[in-house]
Amino acid sequence: RGFLREGMSEGEVLYRVGKPDHVAFIRNIRGQPEEKTWTYFPHPRDPQTLTIVTLRAGVVASIERKISR
Q1: 1 pLDDT tier (thresholds 50, 70, 90)
Q2: For the chain, how far is it from start to end, CA to CA, in angstroms?
């Protein structure tokens, strides 16, 4: 998951790391770009890192990695 970058499309993220473990909508107002977060829980290859990807209008706007113990 370390190879995710801002500016990637939603489809590219799905192709590279698969479906998210949790989806939350931040903004979903008709006529405005959709904003949501995808959360990926720790993976066996990186057991302490929680990854949160924020998407705006289908493009990665930010990526946050948190240590979870």
Answers
A1: low
A2: 18
